[in-house]
Amino acid sequence: MTRDPVRWAVPAVPALAALAVGLWRITVPPLWRDEAATLSAAAERSLPDLLRLLGNIDAVHGLYYLFMHVWTAVFGTGDLAIRLPSALALAVAAAVVAALGRRLADARVGLVAGLLVAASPVLSRYAQEARQYTIATALAAVSTYLLVRALEARTPRWFAGYAVSVALVGWIQLFTLLILPAHLAALWTVRRDRALLTRWAPAAAAGTAAFLPVLPLALEQRTKQVNWITAPDAETVQRLLDAFAGDRILIAPVVVLAVVAWWRRPSPGAPVDLRILATAWAVLPPALLLAVSLVEPVYWLRYVIFAVPGVALLTAMGLRAMPLWGAVPALAAMLALTVPMHLEVRTAGSRPDDVERVARIIAEHRRPGDGLVFEEALYRRIVAADPQAFAGLSDLTLDRPADQVADLQGSEISDVATLRRRAAGLRRVWYVDRSGLEGGPGSWERVKDEEFQRSEDWDQAGRWRFRGGTVYLYERR
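Structure for Mannosyltransferase, as requested:
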């Protein structure tokens, strides 16, 4: 009985720390266009319309959108409300990693690994975003924990639970299934017991098969979703190392501690070698996705942050090899060195763009009867971040709204004559310009640009910069 409080403290302390980190300044970073996409898909349409959307785009986000559809119906669409599931997921991930470290090593390894997950700047950044990446991290940790329990118990119940977790991993984010090669590597430590492999393989296959009906649709939609990704280069790898270590200055210490971790003998009673599991978890998912991306670019950092717990476990094992008088200040120093990154990702300028500022600008200066033009059709999804700010404006290039065409931005007209006819009776038009968008000669983006920004019929009456672009107000001459 006296050991129970300590036993529960190992996952509880990292969970509380992760929740505190996740909630700290969670509403300071502005919503950006990906979060607006979440709102557009999950909160701004009916369930039948959402299912139609998933049949056209974003099938790989289907489970998350369905969850957020229910969540926003209950808790609303405020910044805190829509980001809270991600913060809670970080707490779950920290707790499960701590429990895993305790089970495969000892309480000290578990506690430190959980705290390192809680203190990871890249994980805490996505814990403050209304997307599914920390949820994927939590599910990857849960599936790994269930695998360990299944290897210990060797009963169908645990393998069935593992299969369900693998299915959820695939449904929440397809690339998170790259945790399976790490699990297979962990089984190498019990390779002499082929019965375990013959039990794991069907469970992993069953979990993966749950996503197979959607896979052809996801592959068909791929060009609509990741066609902006370019092939990885040296800078890509550098950003990956920075993120996984917590900061560039921590890369060398983390690598050294990982090497030290391999000097420790595995716990004799553990069902798998934690050194192999943690190394495979940290290395294989990003390495495999980077390798694929050399041929077909699909790698992006946020797709592989579920591998950060592997780094945390290796680092914790390395610290465990040190005497306590050295490990404690080393851990404290590492945590302190992550503070600048934590502060950086919690500023108003920390996101790729700021759709809330666009909404505020227009809401403060609009007049009845104003027109609205988005230079890039995809940017229309930002309306979901604050529908009231745009209500009543005449969207001059919109043909059919998003819910009617089962996408996030709707379809647009494509001829300048219709655009001019719609704008003919207007005195003022808001023009949302996205930085870096250069339409080619004759493109619809170039036509819109020339019709307002380079036209003799309109004068620029206002100009407001926002992170990601510029809002212009044009008045007819």
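The beta strands are 371-374, 394-395, 398-400, 411-412, 428-434, 458-466, 469-476.
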